[in-house]
Design brief:
Number of strands: 6
Strand order of the largest sheet: 1-2-4-3-5-6
Largest sheet: 6 strands, mixed
Distance between the termini: 29 Å
Shape: globular
Strand content: 5-15%
Order of helices and strands: HHHEHEHHEEEEH
């Protein structure tokens, strides 16, 4: 039987623990529990998200800020019903409910900001520079970028779909799932030529 204290102490990767993803401003303010239905499944999917995507980001850019991590189905549904920036539970791009799907339908995602890039974005840097860097370096499934802080949703799936969308101009889809990038590799690399060297750990 999981206790909340034990659950929060579970280490998901070199840099992250489960507790890093349990805080919810919606849950705290509206007094709604953010506990999973299937803790073991949440841990399994969360480890993939952290080892494959978040650890390499932290190792390359320094500390990343988790804006919204895991959400229980009840919490997420409340957020959607009350127009609190939560997608429907059955929305294919809803990535915060880590124990919602299994097998081919498994998903785990988070909203995050990278302070190193936020500083540059607020000075006029193009969000697409970061989007193409992630595309060329990490096995992500989807990204959605937001104007504040250049924060973005980033999700893991067993079979990545490689889709990029944004609410920052130019809005809409930068890359449709399964499509080839609109910019050649050399042009994409020029965008992020001044980024720190990639420092992702190779996990077994």
């Amino acid at each position: 039987m999981w206790s909340l204290e034990t659950f929060g102490r579970v280490r998901l990767s070199r840099h992250f623990y489960m507790r890093d993803f349990l805080y919810s401003e919606i849950g705290n303010f509206h007094e709604i529990s953010n506990l999973p239905r299937d803790p073991d499944l949440v841990i399994e999917h969360g480890r993939m998200l952290c080892t494959q995507l978040l650890d390499p980001l932290e190792e390359t850019f320094g500390r990343i800020a988790i804006r919204s991590g895991y959400r229980s189905p009840e919490l997420n549904q409340y957020g959607n019903d009350n127009k609190l920036n939560c997608a429907r539970n059955d929305n294919p791009i809803e990535c915060h409910i880590w124990d919602w799907g299994q097998g081919e339908d498994a998903i785990a995602g988070t909203s995050l900001a990278i302070p190193w890039f936020t500083d540059r974005y607020e000075q006029g840097r193009d969000w697409r520079d970061l989007a193409w860097w992630v595309h060329d370096h990490l096995p992500y499934s989807a990204m959605w970028f937001f104007p504040k802080l250049c924060a973005f949703n980033l999700d893991w799936r067993p079979h990545p779909r490689a889709m990029i969308g944004s609410y920052i101009t130019p809005k809409g889809l930068l890359l449709k799932a399964g499509a080839a990038p609109s910019e050649p590799l050399a042009k994409r690399q020029e965008r992020y030529r001044d980024f720190p060297p990639f420092r992702g750990i190779a996990y077994p």
